[in-house]
Amino acid sequence: MFKRSLVQNRVVVLGGGESGAGAAILAKSKGFDVFLSDKGQLHQKYSDILIAENIPFEQGQHTEERILDSDLVVKSPGIPDTVPLIVALREKGIPVISEIEFASRYTDAQLIAITGSNGKTTTTLLTYHILKNAGLNVGLAGNIGESFAWQVAEKKFDYYVLEISSFQLDNIIDFRPHISVLLNITPDHLDRYGYSFQNYVNSKFNVIRNQKVSDHLIYFEDSEVITDEFAKRNIIPHQWGISLEEKLESGSYLNDGQLFSQINGRTFEQEFDKLPIKGPHNAINAMAAISVAQLLGVNPAQISEGLLSFSNAPHRLEEVEVINGVTYVNDSKATNVDSVFYALGSFNQPVILIAGGVDKGNDYSQIEELVRNKVKGLIVLGKSFEKLQDYFSGKVPQIYTTQDVQDAVNKGQEWGVPGDIVLLSPACASFDLFKNYEDRGDKFKAAVRNLISQ
């Protein structure tokens, strides 16, 4: 098992959500003097756990004197590196790391790290499902499910499938996956990266920073951003491509509706249309999961069984209802423009698109052609509607703005005719009108179902 040489005794955990509570539990189990601090209010679940574990904590404030007296800080990914407290810690030379970095120091499990601007959750869940279905002793963690650190403290897995965000990768030092998956890199979270796309790209490429020649990188070969970056970097791990456009001699590709994968002398073939997940983006996700499974020696029958029995997480092209011939689809997880590109590409029918929210520096030109060809009406749902309205004015037959989800769904019903798709695919964050993308998706589904009772 890899262990970084640590002399730290006093560990402070900043943030008391799932990852923070898990990091605190792991720190205590390893004999550290641990203290958790959250500037907000802790969820009752986590405060109860910390009390039961006899871990001191504070909420509603950060006591800087105590935090700055630490030897190591484990930071929630939601806290930017630019906040004064983090700057002060770094100026004092106190290491600030992420939960995935901390947890990885105390496990000898093989790590499969999946990142990308879009598709992380589906690919992570699908990969986990295939491996677990095949009988591997595997955990699910990272940006999804139970805390990675918490599981390392209390469970014993041979493998972990980890959904990894750029925010988590920003604060790694030695984190090293045996298999990394880089699905795509498109502009997202630019407000967190000084509105520099290259800064965001660099963050994503941290996933391979510590990989060795014995490790593996699975990547989307059709992404110019990724392949251009390859030309600038020395890529150490063995590389396996995924493509929707090219037949690859080594790697995975889609051709005539068939998924093909050829890795380490193992071959696999599957008719894509038979899978429960649809659309070109999900073909990419499926090929990534297949590639991981092949690298780990899962046999073709088990891979196929896992693919066919998979059920995706909600809010990802989730069909809600068909009402009077109109299909209502919840894609609330589409919080950037690239996600909407793939969502629109999944339908041949006319689309009434509901989009909007908190714009993160979006460039709508990448979906302009699809919108012109497929969208018969745009409903802008959000407090800031001007950018979307102005960009697509004259490019779609009709535009409607609202700040009420029921009103948006009602307008979709008014415009819709049998065969149409009413698609919630926002391209934006949700925090102007909703708690999060799940809340937005749940309220959309409730509004759709209200149509039935009207």
TrEMBL record:
Keywords for this protein: ATP-binding, Cell cycle, Cell division, Cell shape, Cell wall biogenesis/degradation, Cytoplasm, Ligase, Nucleotide-binding, Peptidoglycan synthesis
Molecular function (Gene Ontology), one example: UDP-N-acetylmuramoylalanine-D-glutamate ligase activity
Pathway: Cell wall biogenesis; peptidoglycan biosynthesis
Gene3D superfamilies recorded: Mur ligase, C-terminal domain (3.90.190.20), Mur-like, catalytic domain (3.40.1190.10), NAD(P)-binding Rossmann-like Domain (3.40.50.720)
Reactions this protein catalyses: UDP-N-acetyl-alpha-D-muramoyl-L-alanine + D-glutamate + ATP = UDP-N-acetyl-alpha-D-muramoyl-L-alanyl-D-glutamate + ADP + phosphate + H(+)
Domain Mur ligase central per the UniProt entry, residue ranges: 114-293
Top-level EC class as recorded in UniProt: ligase
GO term, biological process aspect, one: cell division
GO CC, alphabetical: cytoplasm
Record's protein name: UDP-N-acetylmuramoylalanine--D-glutamate ligase
